[in-house]
């Protein structure tokens, strides 16, 4: 059961957005939980959550007293324990959860923004041949030792498939789906840019952001429904590397009249 939560934090004085780097947000998140719960998040090879803080990538020079982090829980078995901790901190403890550059930060509110089930994602999926992804924050894949910064359909849907199968009771066969993607799904439009983003202490990662049109050249109702379900799931899971640090944030877009399709 994918669940999207909005976590609002309050600082005791204005803090530059540039101080809230991806690893810092990651650290603030883990500071919310006791060690045993943190291990549940940290141990699996496929992480059962994603975090997004797009403001850092857009307005790093901004100063703010409060900021909101989107948290997506991909494994519903974790939600009771997570919610217990989060709501206790917002309603009972009211104590700083982190200190960033001498600024104390407190969790003030937790709000559910979107809740669905894997069964619902699959049941509502339509066999659309075109999908429009807005990559809101830098997205990247790993090829060997290097960042790969192109929205290759195979890599996008392989990333989503791995996360889906890790947490969904409805398993999808990659042996059937991925060859279909490789042979039939192409990019029909692409407006992206790449940039290097600092993770922390000078370490950087290169990713792309922007709008990408994916088009299936062959109609296969069952496989297209699966791709559409995975695309909706992407709004919770994110795509590619470092989604637990804010990278790979995706929103689905609707096609507008006049949108060009030829690259």
Please provide the ordered H/E string of secondary-structure elements: EHHEHEHEEHEEEHHEEHE
Helix content: 25-40%
In CATH's first tier, which class of the largest domain applies? Alpha Beta
Structural class: alpha+beta
Q: What would you report as the Rg, rounded to the nearest angstrom?
A: 19 Å
How many H/I helices?
A: 8
The major beta sheet can be summarized as:
5 strands, antiparallel
The gross shape turns out to be: globular
DSSP E strands, number: 11
Biggest sheet: strand arrangement: 2-3-1-5-4
Report mean pLDDT, rounded to a whole number: 88
What is the number of domains? 2
Q: Give the second-level CATH assignment, the architecture of the largest domain.
A: 2-Layer Sandwich
Short structural summary:
By secondary structure, the chain is α+β, with helices and mostly antiparallel strands.
């Amino acid at each position: 059961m994918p669940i999207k939560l909005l976590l609002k934090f309050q600082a005791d004085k204005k803090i530059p957005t540039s101080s809230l780097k991806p690893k810092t947000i990651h650290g603030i998140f883990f500071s919310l939980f006791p060690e045993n719960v943190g291990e549940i998040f940290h141990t699996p090879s496929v992480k059962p959550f994603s975090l997004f803080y797009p403001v850092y990538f857009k307005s790093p020079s901004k100063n703010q007293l409060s900021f909101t982090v989107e948290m997506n829980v991909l494994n519903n078995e974790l939600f009771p324990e997570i919610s217990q901790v989060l709501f206790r901190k917002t309603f009972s403890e009211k104590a700083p959860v982190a200190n960033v550059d001498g600024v104390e930060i407190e969790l003030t509110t937790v709000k559910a923004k979107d809740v669905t089930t894997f069964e619902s994602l699959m049941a509502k999926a339509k066999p659309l041949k075109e999908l429009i992804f807005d990559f809101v924050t830098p997205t990247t894949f790993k090829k060997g030792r290097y960042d790969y910064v192109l929205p290759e359909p195979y890599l996008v849907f392989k990333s989503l498939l791995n996360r889906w199968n890790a947490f969904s009771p409805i398993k999808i066969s990659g042996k059937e789906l991925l060859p279909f993607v490789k042979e039939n799904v192409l990019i029909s439009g692409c407006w992206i840019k790449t940039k290097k983003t600092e993770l922390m202490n000078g370490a950087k990662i290169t990713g792309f952001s922007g709008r990408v049109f994916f088009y299936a050249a062959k109609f296969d109702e069952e496989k297209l429904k699966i791709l559409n379900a995975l695309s909706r799931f992407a709004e919770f899971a994110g795509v590619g590397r470092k989604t637990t640090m804010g990278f790979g944030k995706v929103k689905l877009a609707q096609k507008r009249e006049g949108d060009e399709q030829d690259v």
